[in-house]
Design a protein that fits this description.
The complex is a heterotrimer of chains A (318), B (318) and C (583). With 318 residues, chain A is an all-alpha fold. Chain A has 14 helices and no strands. The longest helix of chain B has 38 residues. Classes of the chains: A mainly alpha (318), B mainly alpha (318), C alpha+beta (583). The interface between A and B is large, with 56 and 46 residues.
Chain lengths: 318, 318, 583
């Protein structure tokens, strides 16, 4: 097991390096001179060429590419994520300010997906081919097809028209004002959680079905154990494995999906920040944010694999 | 997978006489194709939903082709006397801010969604097919490097990867196809690769190798046919995802640029207003959801035809 | 897209037009050579107005308790309270002189004073004393002498003297290496600055400039402390709290969240400010800004979206709202180097054929473009009166005669069958301009003149490169002026090789007229020269000028003390020192 863990962790490192190189190169390929972006066309045009060069070097853009890359990597490892071209705040502070919202929404959505998906999936499997099963399967299929940002837009429309909901203008955290925070985060969490819940329901259903017919369950039944005991102890325990791995993937995927949903709700999270920065050619922000997302994704995958390995006895004793 | 051909079947197919003589002991089986045809028929009877889905898609394609004749109004030119009107007899789905008929825009929008959806899946999954086949068969360093590269690409959430590519490549349909195709490649490659790996070790492949067949010939004649089924399954799963991704990218403003009637673009401005016009939010989203639903249902039934054992598992072709 | 003609060939790939227009309301441009109209000699009291023949009503200056100290117009103004604004406020840096954008001006200017300022109580139509209690202009218009108030202190306790004025304007005129002075052109004519004593400053210009007082009065021309400039080596980009002498002092700035400015208890005008604290909530989205005021979460919104403005009009007992003149215009610049628009006849044909009123109507839910505005910002006394503008060809509502003339011009240019495949470059890839205005413009071009175009949206950050490449026939823009005087923005947009002359139009006759306008001191003569220039522009049409814009403000009814009705330009009334809260 330790061997597996070590191997798995080590493999992640070149992946992270690859991610950083890819992001860096892609950002450098972007058209548009960031100096003109920061100062605006008019001022940029009014600048003397000497000034343009001066600002380029102030922004660190005149060094050879590999040096810029190394500078960036070293800085990141020191926790210095640089400064946005557009704002005075350091990027690290911006991430610390906006990140909790995005993370909170992702966690809430994952929890909601379990809340929706697991009981529904179990019920569906237990009453296979009954009307409950069919209905839930229909809903699951439906929610898989509904884009999360559309669901978000609908929730916003309903909220505005019927509940006097308004998009947030200040960042409020869960711990400072839970009521106002939930006003801001519940909508996106539901929009994201619904689709994820459909996946979880499907997955739960099929893995419970698989396990229900497995040998050891028949053995337990043959022994005369009560139905409920059979279900809860044996089936669920074994069926939960794939669901956990799926949830790991879901959480990571939610970080990405939240980009569109945050835009729909106007939540001042990282996703919206990324989209805004991309359109403004704010290199440093985009680089570091995408690196953050990809790293979190990788780490969550890693954690999921490790959790799966730990939970599945077959791998554990490998 | 139950459809893996045994040596028996291959011989039967390629040399009928000898087979009939040599394997007379095996009861005559209908050919694979015939079996599949039977299953299609059976499915059509037991699952009218899938049939409906396919018909819907076909209908959508027709609508896209003949949009000029079907759509009641020009999707790009608005009647400014009739802006922001709710659904009425004149405009079945209402009009938008520019006085354009929503229904017409949705019909023309089908062109964008379908063309981008199909093309990006075709490009991405074909590339995945070739790459996976080669990688799986050739192995060694090429495979190792490919795996690492794919892991890096997979570390980025779909939407973020697509957004970054669109910013780099600039707006437009062809660049959008490329951007979405890129997000499809890793999953396709992996699946084809694993199929290749499992087929590679089959006896008939080994014998072909022993007989001196070139790698290309082996890949094309012996392994590729086995990849067709998984390839089609992957394609069917990816179609819905590609359509959703196109809508999401356009929603974020980095996909098809306005005023093109992409469904995602139509959704974009809805929540950004003081009094949202519900018909601008509901209908484009319904279009996306129904198309993705039809694609998913059709894909599900395709999977059932090709490989019944996978039925009900919900699939994991991400 | 041409439905029908491409149905079966291109059915798989729809030809996409990009028509994009970002509502670049924050893309204020830098001023070049601004001009105010007419000389102004000030005595002790509220200064004379800018020249005669002005557009807009001249409101009487508000009665102040002292002749030259400002106060809220209402006699029973209350002190106290917290004034909350919802608006933009997340700037890239903090140096006002290096910024062209409201994102800096609106949050920061309340902390500073000018030498002279536009009167906030009449919407900025008159110039009144600020740090200079009186001033004189020599008859030849070359020497401006300002007498400064005594006993004024910066927020850090440093006394204010003439040295601070000179240091500020020296940097403005001649910035050190690495510093960009956006409105440098305004101050280049300053030949010499002297301080005969610590409370007198004299500017000597190299040539007479009628705009000079306006340049000093615009909200941008704040006075910094010499000490702060020296401490920061002339670069205030990282200094959000460089001390000013203003009615508010810096409290705090939480990036991306909130500015807090506190009342300055030692302000040299004891009447103001009224409120204890001014908080600016950073709300980047215009719709959200308006919504915040409508929902009572904020007291004031500087530039909310039009639909919230319309919503506010329905609730007069809760909120007040008004549209006021902005210092930017909606234009389409022609590439004068490339056919067909290298031919002035074709440009004028477009000018005549386009129905501005209809375009305004189409766009009205996204933004307000005013009719009866011509080549001069309508808040300037030099502008043609709107009634007169509406009688002129092209500008007027009745189109028949103009259309006929336009067609004749096209025929004379050899284009009676129209033109195909022209490119309209749009600055920005999203927004109502792209979605609503541009397609309407495009359609109008086609219907009236058979000009067929393709709209190409370009990311703002690469727009400049695209323009420099000259690979377009028309480009949609909302350029801005730094001050309301045409000498400023005409030099940017129309002068040969002007920094924003994207179409590279060059007309020596115009350049000549412009230099005369710059130098003319007599208000009436200047007005005449400007009129001539406008006539020339009507004939030559270097751009299609749709009109100048107005932007909304919304405030809760409890907010009092500012004349909201007549504000003539965007950068004029920005300090909020006379605001008081009636609650």
């Amino acid at each position: 097991m330790n061997h597996y863990v070590a191997r798995r962790v080590l493999v992640s490192i070149p992946t992270l390096v690859g991610i950083s190189v890819l992001i860096f190169l892609v950002m450098r390929v972007l058209p548009g001179d960031p100096v003109s972006v920061v100062f605006g066309q008019e001022s940029f045009a009014a600048m003397s060429p000497a000034d343009q060069l001066r600002f380029r070097s102030e922004l660190g853009l005149d060094k050879p590419l590999y040096l810029q890359y190394l500078d960036w990597v070293v800085a990141v490892l020191h926790g210095d994520l640089g400064r946005s071209f557009w704002q005075n705040e350091t990027i690290r502070d911006i991430i610390l300010r906006r990140g909790p919202l995005t993370a909170q929404i992702a966690v809430m959505a994952t929890l909601l997906s379990w809340l929706f998906g697991v009981p529904v999936g179990v019920l569906s499997a237990m009453r296979r081919n009954s009307w409950q099963d069919n209905v839930t399967r229909v809903f699951a299929t439906l929610f898989l097809a509904i884009p999360s940002f559309w669901l978000g837009a609908i929730i916003v429309i309903v909220g505005v028209l019927y509940f006097s909901w308004r998009p947030p203008i200040e960042t409020i955290y869960l711990w400072s004002n839970p009521g106002k925070n939930l006003e801001m985060t519940l909508g996106p969490a539901i929009a994201l959680g619904a689709g994820a819940g459909a996946y979880v329901a499907r997955m739960t259903r099929s893995s419970v079905l698989e396990v229900l017919h497995a040998d050891f369950v028949r053995t337990a039944r043959a022994k005369g154990a009560q139905e409920r005991v059979v279900v809860w102890r044996h089936v669920l325990a074994n069926a939960i494995l794939p669901v956990i791995t799926l949830s790991g993937l879901i959480f990571a995927g939610l970080l990405g999906g939240s980009v569109a949903v945050e835009s729909a709700f106007g939540v001042p999270g990282l996703g919206k920040y990324l989209v805004d920065s991309l359109s403004k050619r704010d290199y440093m922000v985009v680089q570091n944010l995408v690196l953050l997302y990809a790293s979190v994704f990788t780490l969550v995958n890693l954690a999921t694999d490790l959790a799966y390995a730990w939970l599945d006895p077959r791998i554990r004793y490998e | 997978m139950s459809e893996t051909p045994t040596v028996v079947e291959l011989s039967v197919q390629s040399r009928v006489d000898t087979a009939a003589v040599r394997y007379a002991a095996v009861p005559p089986q209908p050919t694979r194709v015939a079996r599949r045809a039977m299953r299609v028929g059976a499915l059509a009877q037991t699952s009218p939903l899938a049939l409906l889905a396919v018909l819907y898609l076909v209908g959508l394609v027709f609508a896209a082709i003949f949009a000029e004749r079907i759509a009641p109004y020009d999707p790009l030119v608005g009647n400014f006397a009739e802006i922001r009107q709710p659904p009425s007899l004149l405009h079945l789905m209402g009009t938008d801010d520019g006085g354009r008929d929503v229904l017409s825009r949705i019909i023309f929008g089908a062109r964008i969604s379908l063309s981008v959806g199909f093309a990006s899946v075709a490009v991405g999954d074909l590339l995945g097919l070739v790459w996976g086949l080669t990688s799986g068969y050739v192995g060694r360093r090429f495979d190792l490097v490919s795996q690492r590269l794919l892991e890096v690409v997979l570390s980025f959430p779909d939407l973020i990867l697509g957004t970054v590519f669109m910013i780099v490549l600039g707006p437009g349909i062809s660049t959008l196809i490329v951007a979405i195709a890129v997000t499809r490649v890793p999953a396709a490659t992996r699946i084809i690769r694993s199929t290749t790996l499992s087929v590679k070790e089959r006896t008939y492949v080994e014998s072909a190798r022993a007989l001196g067949a070139s790698p290309a010939r082996i890949m094309l004649r012996h392994i590729a046919p086995q990849c067709v089924a998984p390839f089609l399954i992957v394609v069917s799963a990816h179609l819905g995802i590609a359509i959703t991704t196109e809508a999401a990218l356009s929603f974020l403003g980095v996909g098809v640029p306005p005023p093109a009637p992409s469904w995602g673009v139509m959704l974009a401005g809805v929540s950004a207003r003081f009094n949202p016009l519900w018909w601008l939010g509901v209908f484009p989203g319904l279009a996306i959801a129904s198309t993705v639903l039809a694609a998913n249902l059709a894909g599900d039934s395709l999977r059932d035809i090709l490989d019944p054992q996978l039925r009900g598992s919900g699939g994991s072709a991400r | 897209m041409q439905p029908g003609s491409q149905a079966l060939n291109r059915r798989r790939f729809v030809q996409i037009f990009g028509a994009s227009f970002a509502m670049a309301l924050l893309a204020a441009c830098s001023g070049a050579a601004p001009q105010t109209a007419g000389p102004t000699t000030a005595a002790g009291s509220a200064g004379p107005t800018t020249a005669a023949g002005g557009a807009g009503p001249t409101a009487a200056p508000a009665a102040a308790r002292n002749a030259d100290l400002i106060a809220a117009p209402e006699a029973a103004a209350k002190k106290g309270g917290v004034f909350t604004i919802a608006g933009p406020g997340d700037p890239a840096h903090f140096d006002l002189d290096q910024s062209p954008s409201l994102v800096n001006l609106w949050p920061q200017s309340p902390m500073y004073d000018n030498l002279i300022r536009f009167n906030p109580l009449d919407g900025g139509q008159t110039i009144i004393p600020d740090l200079a209690s009186k001033w004189e202009v020599s008859p030849d218009g070359l020497a401006y002498t300002f007498h400064l108030r005594q006993g004024v202190k910066f927020h850090d306790g440093t006394p204010f003297t003439a040295d601070d004025v000179i240091a500020t304007f020296e940097r403005r005129r001649n910035p050190p290496n690495g510093v960009v002075s956006i409105r440098q052109e305004l101050f280049k004519p300053i030949q010499k600055m002297e301080a005969p004593d610590p409370y007198t400053v004299r500017f000597t210009l190299s040539a007479p400039r009628g705009y000079f007082l306006e340049a000093l009065a615009t909200g941008w021309s704040v006075i910094f402390s010499k000490k702060s400039l020296e401490q920061n080596k002339g670069d205030l980009r990282r200094v959000p709290d460089s001390p000013g002498t203003g009615a508010y002092r810096f409290g705090s700035y939480n990036a991306g969240e909130k500015w807090v400015l506190e009342r300055n208890p030692d302000y040299w005008d004891p009447n103001v400010p009224y409120v204890d604290r001014m908080e600016r909530l950073v709300v980047p989205d215009q719709k959200d800004q308006g919504t915040a005021v409508l929902a009572g979460r904020a007291d004031f919104a500087d530039n909310p979206s039009i639909d919230t403005h319309l919503e506010a009009q329905k609730k007069p007992d809760e909120v007040g709202t008004v549209l006021h003149r902005a210092t930017w215009a909606w234009t389409v610049t022609f590439n004068a180097q490339k056919p067909p628009f290298n031919d002035a006849r074709v440009r004028r044909a477009v000018h005549l054929a386009m129905n501005r009123q209809q375009l305004s109507e189409i766009y009205k839910l996204a933004g307000q473009v005013d009719m009866g505005t011509r080549w001069v910002q309508p808040g300037s006394p030099l502008a043609t009166k709107s009634d007169d503008v509406l009688k002129l060809p092209g500008w007027r509502a009745a189109k028949d005669a103009d259309l006929a003339e336009a067609k004749k011009l096209m025929a004379a240019a050899g284009l009676s069958n129209g033109v195909k495949d022209l490119v309209i470059l749009n600055r920005g890839t999203s927004g109502a301009g792209l979605e609503v205005w541009a397609p309407a413009f495009q359609d109008m071009l086609k219907q009236t003149l058979q000009i067929e175009t393709q709209i190409k949206p370009v990311e703002t950050s690469v727009y400049w490169d695209s323009v420099r490449g000259g690979d377009f026939h028309m480009t949609i823009l909302q350029p801005a002026g730094a001050i309301n005087d045409p000498s400023d923005y005409w030099a940017q947009w129309f002068k040969t090789n002007g920094p924003q002359n994207y179409g590279n139009w060059s007309n020596p006759q115009f350049d000549d007229l412009l230099s005369k306008v710059d130098a003319e001191l007599d208000a009436d003569k200047r007005r005449g020269l400007v009129a001539q220039a406008e006539d020339l522009l009507d004939q030559e049409c270097p751009m299609f000028m749709h009109g100048w814009m107005s932007i909304p403000r919304i405030w809760r009814t409890a907010v009092k003390g500012v004349d909201e009705q007549h504000i003539q330009g965007t950068y004029i009334v920005v300090r909020y020192d006379t605001i008081w809260l009636d609650r």
